[in-house]
Design brief:
By secondary structure, the chain is α+β, with helices and mostly antiparallel strands. Helix content is 55%, strand content 9%. The structure holds glutathione.
């Protein structure tokens, strides 16, 4: 059975959501954020980490792509080399551009030691977010999902960022982007993943 290691209600949700979409059983292994709990599995000490027998994989987008690819019959992964290239383009853009303003704000508001936090990053990061939300609107260009008419692992990672944007009250000026996030975040697999992690987070 798959093991998912990490801190509940974090990027871990991308992995549990993917597994819920696939209908694959998995075991959650709770790690404390910022601790050395994952030192033996993750070179950065960060989660999530997927353990698949003797195969260990870090980094949420790579894990989602691996799972979608491995269970290709379910239709959430690439169908050919061009499909894979487009999916990697989406994933790399999501991590390098779209999630960065949200992640940086969280770091400077909450996660970094106080002496390392910049005084005011809000205006800069909100402007960056607005710019990339515009990119997302143009990339979607009237599609229901990132890859067109089918839901894939890309939508899991992007949808998680949408949840993050809403929780952080980022302005999503585009009706199309807003409707896209509604569509993705209303999926039962996402709700199940969040419920399981919320229970684990609350457990001692
Ligand atoms: N690129 C990584 C980022 C991993 C990451 O930053 N994970 C956070 C939780 S969402 C973490 O474990 N932080 C602990 C720390 O910074 O010490 C991914 O997408 O999985």
């Amino acid at each position: 059975m798959y093991e998912v290691h990490g801190s509940p209600i974090s990027r871990m949700t991308r992995v549990t959501w993917m597994l819920e979409e696939l209908g694959e059983p998995y075991e959650l292994k709770k790690a404390r954020l910022g601790s050395d709990d994952l030192a033996g599995l993750s070179p950065s000490g960060k989660g999530p980490v997927l353990v698949d027998d003797d195969f260990v994989l870090t980094d949420s987008a790579a894990i989602c792509l691996y799972l979608a690819d491995k269970h290709g019959d379910k239709g959430f992964g690439p169908r050919d080399a061009r499909d894979r290239a487009q999916m990697e383009s989406w994933m790399l853009w999501t991590l390098a551009e779209f999630e960065q303003p949200m992640w940086n704000k969280l770091k400077h508001r909450l996660l970094l030691p106080e002496d390392l936090r910049a005084a005011d990053v809000s205006a800069w990061l909100s402007a960056e977010f607005r710019r990339e939300a515009g990119t997302l609107e143009r990339r979607l260009a009237g599609r229901d999902y990132a890859m067109g008419d089918r839901f894939t692992c890309v939508d899991v990672v992007l949808g998680h960022c949408g949840m993050w944007a809403r929780a952080g009250r980022y302005e999503i000026a585009s009706g199309a982007v807003d409707a896209y996030f509604d569509r993705i975040l209303s999926r039962p697999a996402y709700q199940r993943a969040v419920e399981k992690e919320t229970r684990l987070k609350a457990a001692a």
